[in-house]
Amino acid sequence: MEPHSHKVVVDEVSVTLCGTEILRSVALDVDAHEFVCIIGTSGGGKTTLLRTVAGLLECSGAVYLDGGRITGPTPDIAMVFQHFGLFPWKTVRANVEYGLRVQGRADGDGRVTRLLEIMNLAHVADRYPHQLSGGMKQRVGIARALAVEPELLLLDEPFSAVDAITRELLQNEVLQLWERSAAMTGILITHDIDEAILMADRIIVIAGPPGHIDLEVPVDIPRPRSPRSVRSHPSYPDLRDKLWTALQGERERDLETA
User: Fold this and answer.
1) Contact partners, residue 57, CB within 8 Å, separation at least 6
2) What is the pTM of this model?
């Protein structure tokens, strides 16, 4: 796989942690401004793959961003975690500014203020995480990742800890921000088939353990999308059935080896 021909290239990556093989020979490419969703049952190695792409885990094989090998965390990549990952002693604004400060960058163009407004956080900018709802905390985590203007945005089930209405609002906000930024590429981990269809240009199904790519499916539904427009699209039933069948097969294999 040619690392210079895609935004992200995962080249035959394998990961072993504490003597257990988590990923085996994963090969994946992601184009510039593509939004890819990765789904699979629990324990298949989805989060491990995302952390490896982020440069947080060592692996055999290699991961490339714009042709350069990723050997550790880089300012060009930002990650949003499932359980917020906020600093409890910092205000909302200070949490959002954190990445910029670590990189020694000033918020000269008021980006933090704009993000607080876009994410509906301006009215709580001086509050602390313990004063926020789960949805607000996740908004802060997303705003913090976007503040550094990453070329690659990695999202590890960022909407799983919030209620259904907040989840839909956050999905829409992330999609709008991604669509506005022609320079940003996205990779999202999710357990939710409908969420993957709503957000993705392409869906990857990972089976395991050890984790390996079982299926790749393009999502040929026009953007902008909404849950209603996705479910009413003629290709939706077959697409969902194909993904459901792949996940069911994976779950049955898990039960057989349990």
Assistant:
1) 15, 17, 48, 51
2) 0.90
Q: How many domains does the chain have?
A: 2
168 is a domain residue: no
Q: Which two tokens stand for residue 64?
A: 């490339």
Would residue 166 count as lying in a domain? no
- Ranges of the chain whose pLDDT falls below 50: none
DSSP H stretches of helix in 34-133: 46-53, 92-102, 111-118
Q: Are residues 49 and 28 in the same domain?
A: yes
Q: What is the side-by-side order of every strand in the sheet holding 20-30?
A: 20-30, 8-17, 60-65, 68-69
Edge-first strand listing for the sheet containing 212-218: 77-80, 152-156, 185-189, 35-39, 202-207, 212-218
Instruction: Tell how far CA 123 is from the center of its chain.
Output: 27
Per-residue pLDDT, 4: 61
pLDDT of residue 82: 76
Contact (CB, 8 A) for 207 and 216:
no
pLDDT value, residue 108? 65
Q: Pairing relation of β-strands 60-65 and 68-69? A: antiparallel
Full domain range(s) for residue 143:
77-149
d(CA 33, CA 186): 7
List, in order, residues 6 or more apart from 122 with CB less than 8 Å away: 113, 116
**Among 223, 228, 117, which Cα is nearest to 178's?**
223
Sign of CA dihedral 213, 217, 222, 225: negative
Do 63 and 86 form a contact (C-beta atoms < 8 A)?
no
Distance between CA atoms of 180 and 174, rounded to whole angstroms? 10
136 and 96 in one domain? yes
